[in-house]
Amino acid sequence: MKQSAGILLFRRIDRKPQFFLVHPGGPFFAKKDAGAWTIPKGEIIPPESPLDTAIREFEEETGRRPVGPFIPLDAIVQKGGKHVLCWAVEGDLDPEKVVSNTFELEWPPRSGTKVSFPEIDKSGWFTLAEAKQLINERQVSLLEQLVMFLNG
Asked: What is the rounded distance in angstroms from the CA atom of residue 32 to the CA atom of residue 53?
C-alpha cells in the first residue's frame, strides 16, 4: 500500500480560514484545474517518519519549511488507493515566491527526450468554497476536518 504525507497550510483572514493549495506541474496536469489541486505531499519512504516526510515534501515543493505546532488530521484514501496522511499548520507564504523542485520525464512519450518539469507549477490561497472546487475530491475531507478543529 502506497502512503503519502503532506501539509495543509492555513491562515486566517477576518477569522475565516484560507487554505494553501498547489497545482501539480508537468504535462499530465497542464490542462486540468478543478479537482487537480492538492496539498503539498509526497511518498513516505521508510525509515523516514510520516511527519518528517510531510515537512520535507512541503519544503521541496514550496521552498519553505513549515514550523509547528502540527495538527494531525485523519488519513484519506485517494481513488488510486494511495493513503494520504496529513497535518495542518498555521502559517503564511507568498505564492509568488514559491520555488519548486523539478522532476524529469520522457516527453513526448517514447521520444527518448528527457524534459524537466516543476513538481508544482502554481500555488495559491483559497477560501473554503474555492478550495473545495479546486482540490482533489478525496482531499475535501482534510479541509472539512480542519474547519471543524478550528471551530471546535
From this structure: 26
The H or E element containing residue 26 is none
| 142 alpha carbon, distance to own chain's centre | 11
| DSSP classification of residue 119 | S
3-state class (DSSP) for residue 61 = helix
Q: What is the pTM of this model?
A: 0.93
- The residue extents of the domains of the chain are 3-151
CATH code of 3-151, in short, is 3.90.79.10
Residues whose CB falls within 8 Å of the CB of residue 27, separated by 6 or more in sequence, listed in order: 105, 107, 117
Give yes or no for a contact between 100 and 118, defined as CB atoms under 8 angstroms apart. yes
- If you average pLDDT over every residue of the chain, what do you get? 94
pLDDT confidence bin for 33, thresholds 50/70/90: confident
CB 104 within 8 A of CB 114: yes
Contact 56, 92 (CB under 8 A): no
Distance of alpha carbon 125 from alpha carbon 64, whole angstroms: 15
